[in-house]
Amino acid sequence: MIFRPVVALAVAITLALTPATASASSARSCTLPVIGAVCAPATVVLDGKLLQQNKIGLGLGDPTLRKALSALLAQADKAVTAGPWSVTDKNRTPPSGDKHDYLSLAPYWWPTTAPTDNNPWGCPYVQKDGVRNPIVDSISDHAERGTAFSAIYQLSLAWYYTGKASYARKAAQDLRTWFVDPTTRMNPNMNFAQGIPCKVDGRGIGIIEFSYAFTQVLDATAILDVGAPGWTAGDHSSMHSWSTDFLNWLLTNKNGTDEAAAANNHGSFYDMLIAALALSTGQTTLAAQVVQAAKTKRIDVQIQANGYQPLESTRTRSWHYFCFNLVALTRLAQIGQHVGIDLWHYTSPSGGSIFGAVDYLIPAATQGQSVWPYPEMDFRQYAAVDVLHAAAQQGDKAAKAALSRVPAEPGGDLFPARPAAEQLDDISTSVNASGSGSAGA
């Protein structure tokens, strides 16, 4: 049993009387013995009030929430004994000479010749869209980033729902190792992300390796801020400083401005990251500006009246990228709700909308690849589950009706317990790839 029935009513009453949000300074007033956290965390993508309501539902025995939480705890129970992870673990040194700088290689670029002593990378490199070069896994930052950030997210949510201290303490350790401890912390830049051997040390396109996953970290720290054991005011301050520095780098470095100019999913994810960081660091005006601008900068450009996404359709992994871009847009829409900007119900002059783009996925999501007319090297039907959930939650009746006919992700449907879209078809685990991590370019 996740919650004792005898405390269910106490949970509901306590939560109903608790302020909706909590700051780090008042965190201890947001926890109670046995029950644990009772305040709504000031999350930036997730709806903190919905997490609070979920906790009431769990206390009252809601079967859908219990099933989702059981799947989440299965992941958290593995994460609690794994790690911690650090950028200093890698066996290569970035061009800066500092292992605290994040380093990764472009996943879809391949050597044209066999490596030799004079040409150890087999240069020049050529692009093979959608086909991931396993050499990228020789540098551990990308894979460890994905594992660490996912673990931090799962552990923080597991603590919030169960009150089990070991989850919170492990999340705090993982956060301090990657972001805070001077011996293991990452420098707040991505100067050397998705480099191409013999061509370029790093590219703006590599920022996407953080864009989605780091917003999970921001929500995790907000959850821990409501009184997690092992998480201190100093930890909160250190993460706030790191996030502020990272946001400044994204806004001023050429890699960041290059990614901001991308018209496709890269631009969507950049906007989502900037808005989330701005909201997390108290820059709500900037967050609102980014979300507002996405109406014309992203939706007008990316989505046609029938929901078709032309900038993602020519990719060899088109189904993945149609879903992937909507992960960014639906999460950005959720950030917008925190700052009073309604992206969900915006319709472009030509008729494009997030709901329309989600509904465009329904035939293939419910029937399979046979009805998907575009290239896809590794079709995973369940990739659309979370964006359908997210749209349904905001009133999309077609998405809601379709959900029961879409296969759940392996390991179970977690959306009810962590209600924001995630990238479910990790492209690095496709039939053409190895290792782990997020989608590449």
Automatic annotation (TrEMBL):
Keywords (A to Z) from UniProt: Lyase, Signal
All copies of domain Alginate lyase, residue ranges: 86-372
Pfam family, one: Alginate_lyase
Transmembrane parts of this sequence: none
Keyword Signal: yes
Keyword Transcription: no
Domain of life: Bacteria
Position of the signal peptide: 1-24
UniProt cross-references to InterPro entries, sorted A to Z: Alginate_lyase_dom, Chondroitin_lyas
This protein's name: Alginate lyase domain-containing protein
Protein's organism: Fodinicola feengrottensis
